[in-house]
Amino acid sequence: MKILTLGPYANLHFLSKKLLEEPTVDKVYHMPAIFQPTGRYEPIKLAGQGGLDDRDDIIKFINTTELDLVVINALSLLQDQRIQDALTDRQIPKVGCTKELTKLEWSKLTGKKLLKQLDIPTPNHTSFTRNDLLNSFLDIPRPWVLKYEQDWRVGLQTIIITDDNYQQEFEDFKKYGANKFVDLNTKEESVFLVEDYIQIKKEYSYHILANSKGWTYLGSARDYKKFDNGDKGFNTAGMGSYSKVNINPKVHDYADKLVKHFNETSPYVGILYLGIAEDDEGRPYVLEINTRGGCTELQSILLTHNPKQSLSQILYQTATNKVIDPIQFSDSSAVSVRIVRKNYREVVNYYTERNLKAIGKHLDPDFYPEVPGIYITAGLNRHILNSVISTKADTREQASDSIYKFLSNKNLYNFTYRTDIGYLE
Question: What's the rounded Cα separation, in Å, for the pair 418 and 414?
Fold first, then answer.
């Protein structure tokens, strides 16, 4: 089997490595390239490395390369109809939802509307224009959650406003709230969600594989979103995760409702994950819908699968709308730790202003050696989210021990990591 993994994130690099552990996988092409080619792993370097200028090259590669399966795990690429059409024209099976369905992640309002329609618990919200929110910001009863609509700010598109931080967040919102990360040329006025705050007792990322025949549970991971140890500080794109976690079985019902709805309208084919928060009474709420696998959650989840079960076969069943085999889980636990820029928030603000030269050099992929049992994976956005270190063990504490032992003698220069991933429940 020849497989193309399409996306610039560390979880796709990890997926490529996992697929290559199967002897039935002849080759894995990975676009865009991060690491150097090794054996059956063939990363394809693009001139713009995943930018809009590269879409023609991606389509040309799809049209001229023998492929049995394509896995897309990047929102921007799923939203490119030309890529979707090229795969359809060549009848190449794809793990990845339609452009239309990506709105469930990209637009918080669209996701909220569907959850409300299906009577799936989600925090109540109100939408604001920027000017209205500026006028109301200081008067909204705290705590509350600010969410940017149709924007990605490396985790900072979701901010919890509290009595401790509201003045600083108000100043930051005045300064950076108008600078769209993706679409700076939008003609529409920016929209923001003010969402009710839930006192969270437990939070996890719930993953499934779905197609027109149904769905199967892929696994869940406890994602550490906060920058600082002890789950303090601002939100990030994820500082690490562990799997397995105990989940409320009601979430399976939420997934079933969603997949049945899709199959009555437009079937969802691919990885779907729900950001789940359980309140003090154990009631699970869906905080958000994501139309691709999480990073670093996908790494942790896949490491808990039975290695004797074929992942490529499961993905192929998904893409070809066959009944998806139930996932077989091992007895192992897995942990992933992310290496990030020390001045994460400042760099994200540079990013929103398109001032990339001020960020400085990232750690090169060859900084990390190959270590048996430890997966070192990276994406293009190494200026901020440099890499992810993942492993499994009998317990998550043992897995964390292995990662932190590996990192203990590393000089990471301007980068850092949390030291409580896997230890803090």
Answer: 14
Amino acid (1-letter code) at residue 208:
I
Residues 293-344: pLDDT tens digits? 999 999 999 999 999 999 999 999 999 999 999 999 999 999 999 999 999 9
Beta strands across the sheet bearing 41-43: 41-43, 27-31, 2-6, 69-72, 94-95
The single residue listed with the structure tokens 């001229």 is: 64
Average pLDDT over residues 377-396: 93
Task: Give yes or no for a contact between 425 and 278, defined as CB atoms under 8 angstroms apart.
Answer: no
351, 382 contact by CB (below 8 A): no
pLDDT (tens digit per residue) in 331-378:
999 999 999 999 999 888 876 665 555 566 678 777 888 889 999 999
Q: Which residue has the tokens 């600082």?
A: 228
Cβ–Cβ < 8 Å for 238, 318 = no
pLDDT band at 182 (very low <50, low <70, confident <90, very high): very low
What domains does the chain contain, in order, with CATH numbers?
2-97 (3.40.50.20), 124-196 (3.30.1490.20)
Determine the straight-line distance between the first and last CA of the chain, rounded to whole angstroms: 39
Q: Going along 138-201, which residue ranges are E strands?
A: 144-148, 158-161, 191-196
Pull the structure tokens for residue 412: 């990471």
- On whether the CB atoms of residues 173 and 91 are closer than 8 A, the answer is no
Query: Which pLDDT score is estimated for 64?
Result: 96
Helices (H), 55-129: 55-64, 75-78, 81-89, 103-106, 108-117
Are 344 and 384 contacting, i.e. CB atoms less than 8 angstroms apart? yes
Distance CA 410, CA 397 (A): 20
- Phi and psi, residue 273, nearest 5°: -135, 145
Mean pLDDT computed over 68-72? 98
